[in-house]
TrEMBL record:
Membrane topology of the entry: Multi-pass membrane protein
Main location group: membrane
UniProt name for this protein: ABC transporter domain-containing protein
Key words, A-Z: ATP-binding, Membrane, Nucleotide-binding, Transmembrane, Transmembrane helix, Transport
Span of domain ABC transporter: 70-327
Family to which this protein belongs: Belongs to the ABC transporter superfamily. ABCG family. Eye pigment precursor importer (TC 3.A.1.204) subfamily.
One GO MF term: ABC-type transporter activity
InterPro entries: AAA+_ATPase, ABC2_TM, ABC_transporter-like_ATP-bd, ABC_transporter-like_CS, P-loop_NTPase, Plant_ABCG
Length: 653
């Protein structure tokens, strides 16, 4: 027990935020709103601690949550869309109302479910609460206030709140334990915690979400089976819990799960709420077991609020409004049928939305919003510095690359197979006329096709992008730290691929200049990978990215000075010759190979290597300059990649 207390103390000491935590005395002076929370929390805490042998109880206690009341007033969101006018048949541009003056309040210890039919506005409302809607985008109009303990939400919101999105975005090669360890290392300031304390925090969250049994199971991907859907969902929640957020926002936490898994997750969320977390989740159609967990319920349809209040009062409310819920039926199913305007039998949405404001429940909401909040929270930003972030992200990126078969192993095998074929095809080249052709075509193939194969990594970069987006939107780290870490940690794998490829190509064929060949291939692959990063950051789907990458590389191959020598390239394509990094890569391979060849045997056209270079407009082109240009491309493309992430990938829509 003493050990458990020490563990809890350590947990509290590593709290990421400093809040004014209400004392018992302060709590007793709180408004009538608060005792409901504190008593409930206390009872729940005591119940959990009574069975103190359970690891879960201690873990819950160690999750010391600071109370935050989240409220929103009159959130209205219009989007400009074009549609066909049903009367005239002409297309017209209209302002579509996605959210129509939505208000609500959730207090610590409460779990709010935002329900409604598909397209009702649930995700938009959650995004609006979380500040994930960009009000400055063209064609959008957004108004209304979101308040944290009565104060306008500001940029410290990401320190108090965590958002768990619907799609899983986790790095696939890591186990639950490793994923949580990285989350703790990134989110908990190292200046205020020891490594041991961060590990303890991670372990506690693992206990809280019941993930102990799969502690050593990997997330999994197309190559390897890993966690189940329910476990993935819980891990997605767990990584955001590691910094003890006071507010937890979840978009469809049960989507795609069977009813047992859904019930299990909602049970965990309900526990978290009872411990003081303010929980808001969207949910499409909760089964009755899940419905039982909700304290508050909000029903949306066509962006309008049909009900906001205690879940337990909703059946009575709709009965009063003329829609009695049939006995023995799941209230959530009944409400969804009322709100779903796609099918027959729905309620009069406008009448319900207008009527709500005049009913006692609507007036209680308005009164709750007007009342001052008694508990205070003063979050201030406390994050790790650039170097600490760089160190952790580099560590994570290194092992992610090394263990992700799609990023390293599969590519290494592809390169080994292809380069072995090249080696055997061009075995022991001599100095005859046909060998001149063989050397040139081989170097073109290496410069063009080995670079082209970097397209294969794109789908994995798209998966990585989703992880980055989630983490950045939740304020995990700075973009430059992420870009630099991923860039630096891609280098060892690319060097191994380049070295193995060079060994398999240069040694069997007897090409010249092993060292320069290796450096040229390595830098070309680094530039190619940087280009793929840029492509991955701009395309909506990996298939479009592969098509785009293939098209650009195909064009660069055409322009690199082999298919047509530089002087013969038409003027309208000559820019392609200059911008393609393939040009510099191919030229460096050629100069490295031919500059040292003093003669050819029986070759009337080319007396020596220099004559070949002259024919290809490559004479007097120092290799080092081309290598510097390729390195410049790699760095420049990484800078473009970082700028795109910084400016366009803020997690707002
Ligand atoms: N930027 C936008 N431009 C046009 N329409 C939009 C935009 N954002 C949201 N919408 C529309 O607003 C409506 C609400 O979308 P939202 O994703 O919030 O619904 P939802 O209730 O979460 O649905 P689901 O349960 O299917 O996820 C939909 O009809 C959607 O097409």
């Amino acid at each position: 027990m003493a050990e458990a207390h020490a563990r809890m103390q350590a947990e509290l000491a590593t709290s990421n935020l400093s809040y004014s935590i209400p004392t018992n005395e302060a709590q007793s002076q709180m408004s009538p709103e608060i005792p409901q929370y504190t008593q409930m929390q206390e009872v729940h805490r005591n119940n959990l601690l009574r069975g103190a042998s359970s690891a879960n109880s201690l873990a819950y206690k160690a999750l010391h949550i600071n109370p935050v009341t989240l409220s929103w007033k009159d959130l209205t969101y219009d989007v400009r869309v074009s549609r066909k006018n049903p009367q005239t048949g002409q297309s017209e541009v209209i302002d579509k109302r996605i959210l129509d003056s939505i208000s609500g309040i959730v207090r610590p210890g409460e779990m709010l479910a935002i329900c409604g039919p598909s397209g009702g506005g649930k995700t938009t409302l959650l995004d609006a609460i979380a500040g994930r809607i960009d009000p400055n985008r063209k064609g959008r109009k957004f108004s209304g206030d979101v308040l944290v303990n009565g104060y306008p939400r500001d940029d410290t919101f990401s320190m108090v709140a965590s958002y768990v999105q619907q799609e899983y975005a986790l790095q696939t090669p890591f186990t639950v334990k490793e994923t949580m360890a990285y989350a703790a290392d990134l989110l908990i300031p190292h200046s205020e915690s020891t490594r041991e304390e961060r590990r303890m925090r991670a372990e506690n969250v693992i206990h809280v979400l019941g993930l102990d049994s799969c502690n050593n199971t990997i997330v999994g991907d197309v190559f390897r089976k890993g966690l189940s859907g329910g476990q993935l969902r819980r891990l997605s929640i767990a990584v955001e819990l590691v910094r003890n957020p006071s507010i937890l926002l979840l978009d469809e936490p049960t989507s795609g799960l069977d009813s047992a898994a859904a019930e299990n997750i909602m049970g965990h969320l309900s526990h978290l709420a009872k411990m003081g977390t303010t929980v808001v989740c969207t949910i499409h159609q909760p089964p009755s077991e899940v419905w039982a967990n909700f304290d508050k319920f909000c029903l949306l349809s066509q962006g309008k609020c049909l009900y906001f209040g205690a879940a337990s009062d909703s059946v009575d409310y709709f009965g009063r409004m003329g829609y009695p819920c049939p006995g023995l039926s799941n209230p959530a199913d009944f409400f969804l049928r009322l709100a779903n305007t796609d099918f027959e039998g729905h309620a009069d949405i406008q009448a319900l939305a207008t009527g709500f404001k005049t009913q006692p429940e609507g007036m209680a909401l308005a009164a709750g919003l007007a009342r001052p909040i008694d508990h205070q929270v003063h979050p201030h930003k406390k994050t790790n510095g650039f170097l600490v972030q760089l160190m952790i992200l580099s560590h994570r990126a290194f092992f992610n690359n090394a263990r992700n078969p799609g990023i390293f192993l599969v590519r290494l095998i592809m390169y080994i197979m292809l380069c072995a074929m090249i080696g055997f095809m061009f075995w022991d080249l001599q100095l005859g006329p046909s060998d001149i052709n063989s050397r040139i075509t081989m170097l073109f193939y290496v410069a063009a096709f080995l670079v082209f194969m970097s397209v294969a990594v794109l789908p994995f970069f798209i998966v990585e992008r989703a992880v980055f987006l989630r983490e950045r939107a939740n304020g995990w780290y700075m973009v430059p730290a992420y870009v630099l870490a991923t860039f630096l940690m891609s280098l060892p794998g690319l060097f191994i691929i380049s070295l193995v490829s060079t060994l398999l190509v240069v040694l069997p064929s007897g090409l010249n200049g092993f060292g320069v060949f290796l450096v040229d291939l390595f830098l070309s692959l680094v530039a190619a990978e940087a280009f793929m990063c840029v492509v991955a950051s701009v395309v909506p789907h990996y298939i479009i990215g592969i098509a785009l990458g293939a098209a650009v590389y195909g064009f660069f191959m055409l322009c690199e000075g082999f298919m047509k020598i530089k002087d013969d390239i038409p003027d309208y394509f000559i820019w392609g010759y200059y911008i393609a990094f393939h040009t510099y890569s191919f030229r460096a391979f050629m100069v490295n190979e031919f500059e040292g060849i003093k003669y050819f045997v029986n070759s009337p056209q080319f007396a020596d290597g220099k004559a070949v270079l002259k024919f290809y407009n490559m004479e007097d082109k120092p290799v080092w300059k081309d290598l510097v240009v390729i390195a410049g491309y790699a760095i420049g493309l990484q800078l473009i990649f970082g700028t795109i992430l910084q400016v366009f990938h803020k997690g707002k829509r």
